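Narrative of activities, Objective 1.

The group set out to show that a structural description can be obtained from nothing but a protein's sequence at a throughput compatible with the screening campaign. Below is one input-output pair from the validation batch, recorded exactly as produced.
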Amino acid sequence: MQSVELKITSKDWIYITIIGAFFGFFISLCFYFLNYDLQNISTIIFSIASAIFISLFAFFLITISNKFILPKVKQKFWYLISFIFSFLAGFLGFSFSFLLFSFGDFKIIYILSSFWIYISITIGFLTFLVGLILHQFISMKYKNEMIKTQILETKLKALENELNPHFLFNALNSVSELIYQDQKKAETAVLHISKFLRNAINKESLITLETEVSMVKTYVSIENIRFDEKIVLNIEDYTEFKNIKIPKFSIQLLIENAIKHGYLGKTLNVDIKFLKDKIIVQNDGKIANIVSFGTGLTNLQKRLEIQNVGDLSFNILDDKMQFIIELK
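Output recorded for this entry:
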């Protein structure tokens, strides 16, 4: 149905109505200078009102067509229905304006009274032509937006695909070591990896905070195989914010970064705190004098920007490193 359906946003309709009003004003100038009797303000008011009524009828009829008619008829009839509704918008819009103004004492009404019906029909055909042009314009606009969206989704998937192989390589190395040391732990580790990857292959790029935290817990469980339970995860209550959408792997990547750069061979405490517009991940490991964004952090920063979710920042405290996802 998208080949015919004229999808116009509320903002588009405001612009169309304003443009219609200006068009009506310029048409009134033609009447104004063609006939001395029409050189009064009522001519301008009538012309602008007619243009606005045509826009309003177009809005009403196109909405009815898109929601209730086009979805229920065969595709071969769509253009015919679109033609009829476009014609009716102009015909009814001008007719309604003429009949409304006929209750008043307007000179232009007296002049047009003998042939107003022919003007209504003519405007109906003109409205159809304008609607055809508008349809092409709106279609082109949405095609461009769709192409941009597809490009962004492709970039996003490419960024997400950078994460999984790195994690999987480390996890499988850990399992391979466990097979000869503790088969029960190796079996548990494989189940954890399976659970994590099941969530990871979810096509959704934005997931709820609740889902992300669940993935983080599983991730730390897997990593603790390598680090002998020395990674201690402390998660603040987040019930109030559990349905907030964030990029997949965002907190997990910050945990991974904390382990990679902060682990000093002893217990590493990683705290996750939640505010209305912030997610804070901090650890008490190695304190860096200078923080530079490597592949992982740059990856996260780009995904936050592409998905228009927020920004990534950091703080260097006396005893802790903090990374902050600042949500919009």
